[in-house]
Design brief:
Blueprint lengths: L13 E6 L3 H16 L6 E4 L8 H4 L3 E2 L16 H12 L2 E4 L8 E3 L2 H14 L2 E4 L3 E8 L2 E9 L2 E12 L5 H5 L4 E3 L13 E4 L3 H6 L2 H14 L10 E4 L6 E4 L11 H25 L7 E5 L9 E3 L7 H5 L7 E5 L3 E3 L7 E3 L7 E4 L11 E3 L8 H7 L2 H21 L8 H11 L12 H4 L4 E3 L13
Parallel strand pairs: 1-2, 1-9, 2-6, 9-20
Antiparallel strand pairs: 3-5, 4-5, 4-21, 7-8, 8-9, 10-15, 11-13, 11-14, 12-13, 16-19, 17-18
Helix pairs in contact: 1-4, 1-11, 3-4, 11-12
């Protein structure tokens, strides 16, 4: 039996602890910190992050926010509030692009992830959030059946941090798993989503590359794989422009049948993903116009994981809910993104909501069935495999984070568990922050509202598109 050489120190208590600073966690911390600070509360919101930067998938893996807009011929903006401020903050630092995506999830907001790192932490610090980088969540503190804080590890060793409320925004439901909250692991019932190693290419002839249609690239990919000279597990991946001239970003590789909560499998996937990336680079250099001199200049800091643990909450969002654009009285955010199934085959399956419609994200999907004092946000929320494949988009993770952070702050102030707070008060405060809780009316058509490289300088009016230069 292992024993510790000394007692774990107990740090000053926090009002709210957020574990994980991805799109959900960073937004949750900002929302909680702002709301508490504006009401004169000095108890800290603590943000725990294992990397040395904030953003999670938004900075470590990808360079595009999807889910702000509904896809299709009419584009409606369905996420607002703190997420708008995030886009505004990075746009003040660097060019940001509204990029139409005609084959999949709708308009994306593309940015330089290095500048987004700065935007996330500036917003968090301005909200009074105490950021703890290079810190790993280890375990939960429990008192009288209630989660009362967390145990963390960093260069200073182990430490316990008490808190009134803990937000699990780890992506993998790490806090919930340690607390004994019931969950479904990807692959337990239905095959889990595949993983992707993203990479960026420099020295691309952007004019020639953009002139070569995506459909033609997909055909070349199929031909190359069929020839036996290239190992390309995915045959219709995407590659897109970035704010940096002659640099392109990819979502191409595919790692199947990986349990990303298993360290050995995750480590093997990291190495296999980088090997795949080299093969896709070779394919592009050999066969696609404009990429003859392109070289990889960056891999993602961690492999892109789409799905691991999904908690069982007070409500579980389903495929039928998504495709029927279901409405709920406890709505805390909207999603118009399609069900995007990155299965183990060569392609990706898409199932769409009715044109211009959205599904409500119910607050109950953020409240685990057990674990008093806990709330979840991001891709570990309560949903089936199919529903998760729609609502896991980063903009929806931000919307969930905004709601979870505000709910945690309300819980702290009212001395209630997250599941006990008044939903109408939560919704009122969310609207005051700029959150979108009702499907908006008709917005601008993609065909005349957006160009492929339109840059944005400031957020729009939170009812329509971001303004373009």
């Amino acid at each position: 039996m292992l024993t510790f050489t000394k007692q774990i120190p107990v740090l000053n208590p926090a009002a709210v602890i957020v574990v994980g600073s991805g799109s959900a966690g960073a937004t949750a911390a900002i929302a909680a910190g702002r709301w508490l600070r504006r009401r004169g509360h000095t108890e800290p919101v603590v943000l725990i992050e294992r990397h040395g930067f904030a953003g999670g998938t938004s900075t470590a893996v990808l360079d595009t926010f999807y889910g702000f807009y509904t896809p299709g011929s009419v584009s409606k903006k369905v996420v607002g509030g703190v997420p708008d401020d995030v886009v505004h903050a990075v746009a003040e630092l660097d060019r940001v692009i509204e990029r139409p995506n005609t084959f999949g999830a709708g308009t994306g907001i593309t940015y330089n992830p290095e500048f987004l790192k700065i935007a996330w932490e500036r917003l968090a610090l301005a909200a009074g959030v105490r950021i703890s980088y290079h810190t790993m969540f280890v375990d939960v503190l429990e008192e009288n059946g209630r989660i009362s804080g967390v145990v963390v590890a960093n260069k200073a060793g182990l430490a316990a941090i008490p808190a009134a409320v803990v937000v699990d925004a780890s992506g993998d439901a790490d806090v919930c798993a340690r607390a004994g909250v019931p969950f479904e692991r990807a692959g337990d019932i239905e095959p889990g989503q595949t993983l992707t190693t993203t990479f960026r290419l420099a020295n691309v002839d952007s004019v020639r590359a953009r002139a070569f249609p995506r459909s033609a690239m997909v055909e070349k990919m199929k031909e190359a794989a069929a020839s036996g000279r290239y190992e390309l597990p995915r045959r219709e991946g995407s590659i897109h422009i970035t704010p940096i001239e002659s640099v392109m970003a990819t979502i191409m590789t595919r790692l199947a049948d990986v349990d990303a909560t298993d360290p050995e499998q995750l480590s093997a996937a990291e190495t296999a993903g980088r090997s795949q990336a080299l093969e896709y680079e070779r394919f592009l250099r050999d066969l696609i116009p404009g990429y003859e001199n392109a070289r990889i200049v960056a891999f993602c800091a961690q492999i892109g994981v789409r799905e691991t643990r999904r908690v069982y909450g007070q409500y579980r969002l389903t495929r039928q809910d998504v495709l029927s654009a279901a409405k709920f009285p406890d709505v805390i955010g909207l999603c118009g993104a399609p069900i995007e199934d990155h299965h183990a085959g060569h392609t990706t399956r898409w199932s769409y909501l009715p044109e211009g419609e959205t599904v409500d994200i119910p607050y109950r999907a953020l409240i685990p069935r057990t674990g008093e004092g806990l709330i979840v946000a991001g891709r570990c929320f309560s949903a089936t495999h199919d529903a998760h494949a729609s609502v896991r988009s980063m903009a929806q993770c931000m919307a969930m984070g905004q709601a979870a952070g505000l709910a945690a702050a309300l819980s702290f102030v009212h001395h209630l568990s997250p599941g006990e707070i008044n939903i109408h008060e939560l919704q009122t405060e969310l609207r005051a922050m700029g959150a979108v809780l009702e499907t908006p009316g008709k917005d601008k058509s993609l065909s005349n509202a957006i160009t492929a490289d339109a840059s944005i300088a400031v957020p729009g009016d939170r009812a329509g598109h971001y303004h373009q230069n």
